[in-house]
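Office hours follow-up: a student asked to see two folded examples consecutively, so here they are.
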Amino acid sequence: MKAIRWCTAALALMTAGCATFTSDMRGAPDAPASRNLGADRVSVLFLFKHTRRTHGLDAIPKLEPSYDRVRGFDDFFGDALGELSNIGAYATFTELASDVNDPARRSLRDSLAARHDFTVSLTFSRTRSFSRSFLGSLVSIAGMTLIPVPYTESYSATAAVFDRNGRLVMTCGRSASLTRWVQGLLVFVYPFHPQQRKREELYVRFLHELFRQIETERALTPRPS
């Protein structure tokens, strides 16, 4: 019973004594952003894919179920949509792992792409190392969270723009990482650096920066066939 109480106390400290920090964003172009004001309005299909992978445990990246995706993604997308100045009509479609066995959803995706001037395929990925997390957990529990232990997840977002004929117009991407430090005394830092908020802020920035680059490079401007 005494061992169980010690383990329970350690897990409680691990839950409360943590703080998450964001790395610098990578992949931004050197050219300044500019607006594409006055361009003809176009219709766009936004195709979303959310993947996760634990290196050392998962053989390939896997599509995330809805409950595991970042909270509030629809709000983040709507907020970032203002970066694109010539959007007329638009539709959205989120790929699911079950689509491989669902011809109706695959047909819907393809028909949406055919009905819109452009398709913007957005892939959001997060990865972590199984071995580092496992060893970090051992150190944290053995040290009763007195030893600071970092848990890092890498995030990336890529955008590929295709015209109505399926021709690739442009690609761009961003990447960053979130590091969650676990240590008992970080309970006093946690309210200012919670993991959920840091993850949401990262996705907000991903969307704004990708859409801003699409706008700057005039990727959604119709071109002669």
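And the second, which I mentioned at the end of office hours:
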Amino acid sequence: MESTRQAKISRLLQKELSEIFRQQTAKTNGVLISVSAVRVSPDLSIARAYLSVFPSEKGEEILANINRTSQQIRYALAQKVRYQLRKTPELSFFIDDSLDYIEHIDQLLNQ
């Protein structure tokens, strides 16, 4: 069960990460990255961000690039939340494939 503080920090991190990725994806044409959820550990030291990538075929490639530059993303995030958080949590990124799963279920139901 997530505490109120965890939920607030999750929403803050999701909003700021979305803004960082929006600025970065403006430079890459044709790829859209959205942060679908952020889960924060109870001690607020680790944050797991779930990303939706469109088109989904480029998901693994984009995730590898994001993981390679995760320290720079953490630094940019720390600059944005420096007045709200004392320490910025360690970030780990994962592909959120729930939309692909829903689409697959819809295809099966239509058959």
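Two things to take away from it. The chain is about 50% helix and 20% strand. The longest strand covers residues 32-40.
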